[in-house]
Amino acid sequence: MFRLTRNYSIASLVGIALVAIALGFFYRTTAVRSLIEHETLSNVSTAQSLSNSLWPTYANFIAHAASLAPLELIHQPELADLQKDVLQNIRGLRVVKVKIYDMDGLTVYSTNSAQIGEKKDNNIGLQKARAGETVSEMVFRDNLSTTEQVITDRNLLTSYIPIRSSPGGPVEGVFEIYSDVTPLMVEIERTEYRVFAVVSFLLFLLYYFLLMIVRRADRIIRSHENAERRAQAEQIHYMAYHDPLTGLPNRALFKDRFQHAIAVAERTGKSLGVMFIDIDRFKVINDSLGHEGGDSVLIEAAKRIRTCLRASDTACRLGGDEFTVILEHLPSVEDAAQAAERLLKKFTEPMKIGGREIIVTTSIGIAVYPGATKDILRLLKFADVAMHRAKESGRNCHVFYTQEMETHAQENLEFELGLRHALQNGEFRLYYQPRVNTATASVTGAEALLRWQHPERGLVLPDKFIPLLEDTGLVIPVGEWALREACLQGRRWHDAGHNSLSVSVNLSMKQFRAGTLLSSVRETLKVSGLPPQFLELEITESVLVEDVEQALNLMNELKKIGVSLSIDDFGTGYSSLNYLRRFPIDLLKIDGSFIRDVTRNRGDAAITTTIAVMAKSLHLGLLAEGVETREQARFLKTIGCHAMQGYLFGEPVSADHLESLLGEVDVLKLAGFDHSPCVPGTGTPAPV
Ligand code: C2E
Ligand code: CA
Ligand code: CA
After folding, report:
1. Contact status, residue 507 vs residue 538, Cβ threshold 8 Å
2. For a substitution probing ligand 1, which of 430, 449, 484, 508 has the most ligand atoms within 8 Å of its CB?
3. Which residues surround ligand 2, an ion (CB under 5 A)?
4. Tens digit of pLDDT for each residue in 483-529?
């Protein structure tokens, strides 16, 4: 992890040290350079005064010194005078040593007499001076003999200065002048340390000031990071325990809360209830409104469930359209019932989904502890069983779990197992319900309706097993069987002389989507020999809503074969009427639920009338389902709906039975159905 304060401190302190050293060094080199320049000028002026005073007297001696042997030279009497004159000239100056060279580099004179007579040929300073240039350099000597004494540890500036007797004249010799700059150097060093100290101090102050800012920034950044990390952790925790769609706790959190609730219930001796809530016909909603619509319904349902609960209750979404509620601290079982009723009531308000208003109902199962088990999975299962019982008893209600339901659930399991083998075991049957035209007084066709001849339970109606067939995917092979069976039966009736009779077959949404429908219809018509115009396929509105293009293609292809298409249970789905125009539909079958109260309920009458008007304007055929009374049939006639189906004309019966009825059609005097209606359940005319 990056540590801001620490890194800042290290970088700053190293920086401060480097800057201070660099500044000190810069000061030192600049000061020394100016010292050299300054001291060189001073040496040059010393040399000038020396040459002024000495040269007229000693130029000759110096010029001839080279001709003498060194020992001879030392003993020349001029040297003693020269020494005297030189010392006089440099008295009071910083000059500590003077040497005079002739043009061959011979030391003709030195304040240190031991050096007289030495030859110094390869000294660059000397060479440059002989060429007319003044050269200086700083040297350090740990000991040096001057005229009077030996001095130690000295900084010296030595200058080689050419000697000219007249300005601009030839160089005649060279002075080497040593000036002692030790005190100046000591001063420079002292100032250098001062510069170093002051700069370091100022930079350190700046560092400290910035450190305060950096520390504060570091604290802010760190607290931001911590807050972010905490938020992330919270988000992850939330996601792990909540349903992303509705925001309700999910199964995992449900378990946690349940465990806690059970512990509390055990301690306090209060009851605890688990509600299992399932949205009624959610599949239809999903199929008709699409998944987005379905999601909106779930979100709204979650909202409603939450608003109906007390603060101590927990609502969860287990998945799909299943919700659960833990009802804690229940004073009595009656309170659980009240909570369920509140919920059911809340759901009677229409939901606004995608600009439409729909009514969504729920079925609720309740299991209560103590009484039922305290094992969470079993208690939930019990509530689920009770919920299924609520569905069976007509939905939109609540049911409490009872011991007896467990047995029932077990039976259901066996029922499911049996269904899986019903097709191989040849237990499916097709029953046929006549369709009549009251205007022409004729039976125009028959709707094939599936039955399961259960070995123990007898004849089972499709509402009990079609949903299961759909869930298991068995609806596709079973549907194909029904299609083939109905076509073969249609052909048999034609062969028996009823050659204007059509058969209609119900298709499940799954079958419609399976991709094998077209080939299976073609094949079946071929095998059975039933002319295509006598086969009608009934589909539900939901087929028209999802994947419209695919549905449209398939329906057009089916139309090309020549079969008719009808919309079953029309009015119960949520399809827009606008859609109808786009599809090649022949017939609308008004759902029986509108017909049931059509003579008593103005709303139903209005809907039925509207559908009739619309069907007419769209040039669609119209058939009313579930016609049970003469009043209903009469009403339908007044709105121009002559095609009917219902117990008034005949219940679904076996093929043989229907054929025998066909023989009696004339007797039934369909045109005057109000004189001789059928008795529901028998298909035979009732006495007037
Ligand atoms: P559906 O297609 O709407 O069929 C009409 C249902 O209304 C039938 O119920 C019929 O017995 C009943 N019915 C007819 N006349 C009257 C009447 O006057 N009053 C009342 N109250 N009811 C009447 P059934 O046979 O129990 O079938 C229920 C549903 O099962 C059918 O509704 C259909 O959706 C489905 N179904 C039946 N056979 C098949 C099939 O082979 N394949 C598929 N996918 N679904 C089928
Ligand atoms: Ca039908
Ligand atoms: Ca129907």
Report:
1. yes
2. 449
3. 506, 538, 568
4. 999 999 999 999 999 999 999 999 998 999 888 999 999 999 999 99
